[in-house]
């Protein structure tokens, strides 16, 4: 099974979904416009469900253009979700959208993720402001991996944008770019107050935290793993589609396999208090960025009498009680204890 899938496709249309820039830019777009862009490219007869254009398409994209840059940023963030990139010439910059059944597209498009961008804007940024380009694409990937248009769609728009700012800044840090151009970009695009975005100071604080937490920390594991002396145990499941193994391999983590009691996907982690919690946190972030939905992190039960251990496992019924943890929520955690979406790690 292919774990890393991306489609680069070009179309004309309008941008929609979860955006990045000012109130004026976001006011001119809507989710309906983004769906119209998808329909236009694929020549969809929504009423009849016809699909006239199928398969991966690559038009007018060369080395150094969107294909190369999007793949690089996705690999640095260990993005393993299946996403499609659409070039829509009426877009101001870039946006993310997750298609659901309610969008009334043919069933082939349900639960698919799209990043929609303006090609001319992309080329201009690539030539003049690469850190800004990395931030924008990382921001949009942040919307997708943090499930802003699906499991966590009820979050407020400003909160979604803050979490995406964190992911975008994390991408900038991971690719070794300087903080100051990103600070200037955020100061510019967040300077006009908008109900869709948190105040500038808050956005800068979240972005700075993402940058600092990720700077020099290559999610693919190019830097030594630092997990020596820690027993990492994973309970393999077919539902994980090999993603967990790939993350562990990319981070150079040696691990043991246990027998799983469940067939559904891994959804949580345990740890012991005698290890550096940053290792738990970094692994949880990498798994989340790869598309694994973690609902909980907990201290190992005392009666197990284990030490120096991290597990990646599953628990029944958690999806009915909590939301998946976001990258930013995980990054705020500071110790091995009980964590779920109901515990505000960033407030502690």
Radius of gyration using CA atoms only: 20 Å
Low-confidence region ranges = 1-17, 21-29, 47-64, 218-224
- Helix share, percent: 25-40%
Q: Span from first to last CA? A: 41 Å
The biggest beta sheet, please?
6 strands, mixed
Structural class, from secondary structure content? Answer: alpha/beta
Task: Report the portion of residues in β strands.
Answer: 5-15%
Whole-number tally of structural domains: 2
**Overall residue-averaged pLDDT value:** 78
- The SSE order reads EHHHEEEHHHHHEHEEHEEHE
Strand order of the largest sheet: 6-5-9-7-8-10
Total of helices: 11
Kindly describe this structure.
With 348 residues, the chain is an alpha/beta fold. It folds into 2 domains: 6-214, no CATH class; 231-347, no CATH class. 36% of the residues lie in helices and 12% in strands. It is built from 11 helices and 10 strands. The chain has helices spanning 23-27, 31-42, 66-76, 119-128, 130-145, 157-174, 179-189, 200-214, 243-250, 277-289, 327-332, and strands at residues 6-10, 83-87, 94-98, 113-117, 231-234, 255-257, 268-271, 296-299, 309-313, 339-340. Strands 6-5-9-7-8-10 form a 6-stranded mixed β-sheet, with helices on one face. A 4-stranded mixed β-sheet has the order 1-2-4-3, sandwiched between helices. Strand 7, helix 10 (277-289) and strand 8 (296-299) form a beta-alpha-beta unit. The longest helix has 18 residues, at 157-174. It starts with 5 loop residues before the first strand and ends in an 8-residue tail after the last strand. The model is unreliable at 1-17, 21-29, 47-64 and 218-224 (pLDDT under 50).
């Amino acid at each position: 099974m292919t774990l890393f899938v991306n489609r680069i496709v070009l179309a004309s249309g309008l941008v929609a979904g979860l955006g990045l820039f000012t109130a004026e830019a976001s006011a001119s777009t809507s989710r309906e416009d983004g769906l119209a862009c998808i329909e236009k490219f694929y020549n969809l007869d929504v009423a009849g469900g016809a699909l006239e254009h199928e398969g991966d398409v690559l038009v007018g994209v060369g080395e150094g253009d969107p294909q190369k840059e999007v793949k690089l940023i996705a690999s640095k963030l260990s993005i393993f979700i299946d996403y499609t990139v659409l070039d829509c010439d009426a877009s101001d910059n870039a946006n993310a959208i997750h298609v659901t059944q309610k969008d009334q597209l043919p069933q082939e498009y349900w639960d698919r993720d799209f990043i929609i961008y303006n090609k001319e804007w992309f080329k201009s940024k690539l030539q003049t402001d690469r850190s800004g380009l990395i931030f924008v694409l990382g921001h949009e990937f942040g919307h997708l991996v943090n499930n802003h248009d699906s499991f966590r769609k009820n979050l407020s728009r400003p909160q979604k944008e803050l979490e995406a700012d964190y992911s975008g800044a994390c991408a900038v840090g991971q690719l070794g770019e300087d903080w100051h151009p990103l600070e200037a970009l955020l100061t510019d695009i967040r300077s006009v107050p908008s109900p869709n975005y948190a105040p500038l100071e808050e956005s800068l604080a979240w972005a700075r935290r993402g940058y600092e937490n990720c700077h020099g920390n290559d999610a693919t594991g190019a830097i030594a793993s630092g997990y020596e002396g820690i027993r990492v145990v994973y309970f393999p499941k077919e539902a994980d589609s090999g993603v967990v193994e790939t993350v562990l391999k990319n981070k150079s983590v040696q691990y043991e396999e246990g027998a799983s009691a469940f067939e559904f996907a891994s959804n949580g982690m345990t740890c012991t208090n005698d290890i550096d919690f940053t290792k738990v946190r970094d692994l949880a972030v990498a798994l989340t960025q790869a598309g694994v939905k973690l609902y909980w992190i907990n201290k190992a039960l005392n009666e197990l009498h284990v030490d120096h251990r991290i597990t990646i496992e599953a628990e029944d019924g958690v999806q009915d009680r909590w939301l998946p943890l976001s990258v930013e929520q995980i990054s705020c955690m500071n110790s091995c204890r009980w964590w779920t979406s109901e515990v505000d790690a960033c407030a502690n």
